[in-house]
Amino acid sequence: MRIRPYIPSKDYKHISKWIDNERTHAFWSANRFPYPITPESFHDFLEKISTEWTDSAYVATENNGQVVGFFCYSVNTENNIGFLKFVIVDKEKRGNGYGKEMLNLALQYAFQITGATAVQLNVFDENIAAKHCYEKVSFVERNIDKDVFSYKDELWSRCNMIITK
Question: How far are the Cα atoms of 1, 29, 52, 146 from residue 60, in angstroms, in the given order?
Fold first, then answer.
């Protein structure tokens, strides 16, 4: 597996297929942009977080170039803490170690290239599979904000997780 910068004209078509229902979309994006996603809404959002938070978008690919994952990353230069966002793996690949492998590459990049001393992320506590994947990579729960996100008739809690170098 490799990671490389996200190329809108090449990669969007893959990622858009992985978000095939409202719940997955909400887990992944916290509804920061509408479902179903469109190239315009997604790319406008990526531009916004790039400008506001210096987030960069990346894809994970198999060695043959097939896109299998996506995430955004930024590092706060004041405290040297990186932040992973919008982590997702191809729905056909989930549960087979792709997420763990992609996260390990993202962490290698964060610690070795950007000089982060720690990396954090947020995950809905109800997204059990994602949270379990992060724990396998050694992220630890830092705190939970209870019932902060409304999805249909549910209230979801946001869990902040961190890993240190």
Answer: 7, 18, 24, 32
